[in-house]
């Protein structure tokens, strides 16, 4: 009924349709998205990823920077088997690899923050055959002092509770000490009276 070429064409068409429906693997990147840090300090730009392919020597990580006030995108850092720090520019001698590919971590450390470091940092990970996927972004704000956040409030509450507990323990111990001292003085007076 159908010829060999017709059967081949149908099989080819079926193969193309299945390939189109087959889910493609992509690298997924996770970042904090927004980060605030104090001028003059060091900050870890955290970038983790997931990939269907096992991590190997083909893995590459590229970090770039877009200034907050506009301007051209700038190179920050590159990793492929070994880290490659910038040889010139604003990030020279200020950025270091802090990732661990076996743990799906592509983070970097940025030293001695400056106000002109405000902007968006992008983390792109390629792990062939997983080379597609969104680029991770971190919007960094360099400030004079960090705003009072929930973490600070929690630390203050825990610290205050500990201080109150220590004060109560000291009061109880002192109360017991003076109580025993009073009992000892009364017992001594009773002994003197009986003598």
Automatic annotation (TrEMBL):
Sequence intervals crossing the membrane: 151-175
Lineage: superkingdom: Eukaryota
Compartments, record wording: Membrane
Entry-linked CDD domains: IgV_EVA1
This protein's UniProt keywords: Disulfide bond, Glycoprotein, Immunoglobulin domain, Membrane, Signal, Transmembrane, Transmembrane helix
Secretion signal, residue range per the UniProt entry: 1-26
Record-linked PROSITE patterns: IG_LIKE
Name of the protein in its database record: Myelin protein zero like 2
Organism: Equus caballus
A Gene Ontology term for the protein's cellular component: membrane
InterPro entries per record: Ig-like_dom (IPR007110), Ig-like_dom_sf (IPR036179), Ig-like_fold (IPR013783), Ig_sub (IPR003599), Ig_V-set (IPR013106), MPZL2_Ig-like_dom (IPR029863), Myelin_P0-rel (IPR000920)
Similarity comment text for this entry: Belongs to the myelin P0 protein family.
Pfam (any one): V-set
Name of the gene: MPZL2
Domain named Ig-like: residues: 23-141
Keyword rRNA-binding: no
Membrane topology of this protein: Single-pass type I membrane protein
């Amino acid at each position: 009924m159908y010829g060999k070429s017709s059967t081949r064409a149908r099989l080819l068409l079926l193969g193309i349709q299945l390939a189109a429906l087959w889910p493609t693997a992509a690298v997924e990147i996770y970042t904090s998205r927004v980060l605030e840090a104090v001028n003059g300090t060091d900050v870890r730009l955290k970038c983790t990823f997931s990939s269907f392919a096992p991590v190997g020597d083909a893995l590459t990580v590229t970090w770039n920077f877009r200034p907050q006030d506009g301007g051209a995108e700038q190179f920050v850092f590159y990793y492929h088997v070994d880290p490659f720090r910038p040889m010139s520019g604003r990030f020279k001698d200020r950025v270091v690899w802090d990732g661990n590919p076996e743990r799906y971590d592509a983070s970097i450390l940025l030293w001695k923050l400056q106000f002109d470091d405000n902007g968006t940092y992008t983390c792109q990970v390629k792990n062939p055959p997983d080379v597609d996927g969104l680029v991770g972004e971190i919007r960094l704000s360099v400030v004079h002092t960090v705003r009072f956040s929930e973490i600070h409030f929690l630390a203050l509450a825990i610290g205050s509770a500990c201080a109150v507990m220590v004060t109560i323990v000291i009061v109880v111990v002192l109360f017991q000490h003076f109580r025993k001292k009073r009992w000892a003085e009364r017992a001594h007076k009773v002994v003197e009276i009986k003598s």
